Amino acid sequence: MKKNLAFTFAGVLLASGMLCYILCFGGNQNPEPFVPPSGTVPLRISVETTIVTEPLLPDGTGVDFFAVLDNLCSDGADSADNGFRDIVRLLGRNIFGDITDQQWTILCEKLNLNPDDPPQFEYVKPDFGFNVAGDSELLERWVTEMSPAITAVAEALNKPLYVVPPAGRLSDNPVFQSGHFAQFKGSVDWPDDLPGTMAQRAIAEMFSHRFMYLQDKQDAEKAWDDVLSMFCIVRRFCSQPFPNAANFINAFEKMAAYYAEEFLKIESIDAAQLRQCLADLDSLPVGAQFEDTLEYQRFGWLKNIAEFPQNGPIAFGHRLIEMPDHPLISPTISEDDKMAIVQINKEMEITLRIYREVPFDWNIIAEIMNAEFDDRLGKPAKQAVFQSNPALRKIYDETVVPGLSEDEMREILAGGSISVLMERVNKLPHDVWNIDRLTKLTLEERSVYLGKAFFASRVLTPERFALQNSEGVATFEKVKTAIALQLSAEASARK
């Protein structure tokens, strides 16, 4: 009879994520330094567990996974083929917004640029919004000044590489050094991709503003070039390995699609141009691929596992949540959701206690997760793991991780209801994820359980990746359909 692992906290964490914009996590939840329970086997350095054996932390006790992730996101940044490097050289520091001297120095070092060199063009942030109707003179002055830079940026977008390196550590970012974020120290020590993200938004807005000017001038050919550049930014930036890049696909694609539809309103467009538009859209660079995210996810999880002995459950995002006493926020949370939050915290308290009292072998957990990642990449590592330790094979095969179906996930994400989520979680069996059952299992058994459950419940699946990006994909296809319909209408009119 197969054993069931009731990985309840997977649902709890999903609920926490849905609340991240309206709730704050409890502040002083770990007043004492975390001490791993007796019998814990910490992660050792080996190709089977940590995958890489260097670079090491300054004290030599483990792999520096921050450096591994940072290098993964920065590989090729200093190449002459890197289009983003050209853009920074063209536009300078202002394209990143309000970044610190330290962040700018780090970026220039990775891009092999001198931070003191002046840019070829001085980026001027528009002092108007997207709605510049009635302010055409202001728009024309800005476009006249910035148009040579925008054209040069368009050329840079087509270079072989597009690497947007992180700007240091997220925990050093001023945004995360104030307010509620201050309590996340030790859990946001990740490569800081926020400045690079802000730069992409500014670049896209440059093209959008020039498009509005060209649309007003009825210059269809040049206006379409700027639309293509906006679509190109989506694909170049969102193919970066760090997770936040993919999160912008839908927003950036919608922005480009809006101006594509505006382009179709230009009266001078003819059938030949419409056919060329469809060909141009089909020739855009390949966008974000699920496989591109796996290595960052893998090393991110190994980083969490390696930090567990120091940080405890917070390394995996396990912490209690509380509703802020704020007049603009509290009334927006329903009573059902408030009750669900109480239940989430009860479940979370069980998880926090387990990690404080039940030991695991984190090497087994890492090997199981690595094998699962390799399996997703089509590598036979899983079989190698079981050949070296046949006893794990039976335990692994007997482990079943109940979870939420993709249909249930879609319903939850669409509805945004915490109480609906908890109804789904309550359907999961609770016969293993409790201290009594876990302590009756061997160290190897419960470690295999946790490794398999971590991967099944916390690692992004191809289906969920497609779901996250579905809105952007649909928007892009809608643009192609609109162009095809207009082309068909013109053909019918000529008959």
Topology pattern, helix = H, strand = E: EHEHHHHHHHHHHEHHHHEHHHHH
Given as residue ranges, the uncertain stretches (5+ residues, pLDDT < 50) are 1-30, 178-186
Number of continuous helical runs: 20
Shape call: globular
In what range is the share of β-strand residues? under 5%
Q: Rg to the nearest angstrom?
A: 25 Å
Q: Please tell me the overall pLDDT.
A: 82
Count of structural domains = 2
* Tally of DSSP β-strands: 4
How would you concisely characterize the structure shown here?
The protein is 58% helix and 2% strand. The protein has 495 residues and is mostly helical.
Folded structure, characterized:
It is a single chain. Helices cover 58% and strands 2% of the residues. It is an all-alpha fold. The chain folds into two domains: 3-63 and 292-460, no CATH class; 71-287, no CATH class. Helix 7 runs parallel beside helix 10 (271-282), helix 13 runs antiparallel to helix 14 (381-388) and helix 14 (381-388) crosses helix 15 (390-398).
